[in-house]
Design brief:
Layout lengths: L2 E19 L2 E3 L9 E11 L2 E7 L5 E7 L3 E14 L15 E2 L5 H6 L12 H8 L9 E2 H15 L1 E2 L10 H7 L1 E2 L1 H14 L4 E8 L2 H4 L15 E2 L9 E2 L5 E8 L3 E5 L11 E7 L8 E2 L2 E2 L5 E13 L15
Parallel strand pairs: 9-10
Antiparallel strand pairs: 1-6, 1-18, 1-19, 2-5, 2-17, 3-6, 4-5, 7-8, 11-14, 11-16, 12-13, 14-15
Pfam families: Bact_transglu_N (PF08379), Transglut_core (PF01841)
Organism: Caballeronia novacaledonica
Protein name: Transglutaminase-like domain-containing protein
Length: about 325
């Protein structure tokens, strides 16, 4: 059964005096496919700006925003309504030749997957191989899905989620040493581990739906010791969800027969309706929600705020015309 979700994403950059801006690239819009349908999409920008939309090299939707006047703040306010069908990824059949690891991609697949196979951090691979050895048999084969599930679960269970205001992503070896990081760090770690195993993997950015935020728990059930971005609900049916309230990150691994399968090591998810895909890229730096420049002194920058809310809504009225109803 599908669910209907409303996403509101507001990013605000603040300055101590009016500054000028270069064109900004904005990747907020959910990426539609057979599992996600975008019913409406708006992007409002302050100060006065012009905008047009393009597809990048990965066919992600990117808004090019060009502020036309100097301002003390740049606010990007987006709202989306989507229908999420929640594909049951664990039930998708893997091709017989890829059911057990190790396996080799077909030559045609290797050609198409070439940019998603080489590790981004080859110097970190020895440390990653030592860590992933615990999930591999000393001899023989193992189910490919079992390896990925074990890695996904281990990062969720053995690493501590910590929000971080600083931009960028930790090196995989740094995340491994610290046993802590953000969702972006965990996605990059598992992506590099998968690539080290010869599996094609890509970085995914988007949003995370947390049911607990739709119906806030009473004070007695809240755990004040949780890291920022986490919610605890005392119910066997409501696991701890980490990373809501901001943009989220996970990864895809390509399994012949099943295709690109989503893994969220921050929450040990394998797809479902809680992950709302915006973009996929070869490396995290290419998935920045906002990128651009402003002109002034370094001291002019006063800070930034990001607010993301995702809530379930009733089925909206169907648009008068067929297909997507989109306004910009």
């Amino acid at each position: 059964m599908s669910v209907f979700l409303e996403v509101e994403h507001v990013t605000t950059y603040r300055y101590n005096k009016p500054v000028e801006f270069s064109p900004h690239r904005v990747m907020f819009r959910p990426r539609a496919a057979h599992d996600i349908r975008v019913l409406s999409a708006t992007l409002a920008v302050s100060p006065h700006s012009t905008q047009h939309w393009i597809q990048d090299v990965f066919s992600n939707s990117v808004a090019i925003v060009e502020p036309r006047v100097p301002a003390e703040a740049l606010e990007l306010r987006a709202r989306f309504v989507i229908e999420h069908f929640g594909v049951r990824n664990l039930e998708l059949p893997v091709a017989p030749e890829a059911e057990n690891y190790p396996f080799q991609y077909a030559d045609e697949d290797r050609l198409d997957l070439a940019s998603f196979l080489p590790p981004q951090y080859p110097d970190d691979q020895p440390a990653l191989r030592d860590w992933v050895a615990q999930f591999l048999p000393r001899r023989g084969t193992i189910h490919t899905r079992d390896i990925l599930a074990n890695i996904n679960d281990a990062i969720r269970g053995d690493f501590q989620y910590q929000s971080r205001d600083a931009m960028g992503t930790q090196r995989p070896s740094e995340t491994l040493d610290r046993r802590s990081g953000t969702c972006r760090d965990f996605a990059l770690l598992m992506m590099e581990v998968a690539r080290g195993l010869g599996l094609a993997a890509r970085f995914v950015s988007g949003y995370l739906y947390d049911r607990a935020l739709d119906t806030p728990a009473p004070p007695a059930t809240r755990n004040t010791g949780l890291q920022q971005g986490a919610r605890q609900v005392e119910s066997r049916d409501e696991p701890l969800v980490v990373g809501a309230g901001a943009t989220h990150a996970w990864l895809h691994v390509y399994l012949p027969g099943a295709g690109w399968v989503p893994y969220d090591p921050t929450n040990s998810l394998v797809g479902g309706t809680d992950l709302i895909r915006v973009a996929y890229t070869r490396k995290p730096e290419q998935a920045a929600p906002v990128s651009g420049s402003w002109f002034g002194d370094a001291s002019d920058f006063a800070g930034m705020d990001v607010s993301v809310s995702v809530r379930q809504i009733e089925r909206p009225a169907e648009p008068a015309s067929t297909g997507e109803s989109i306004s910009h």
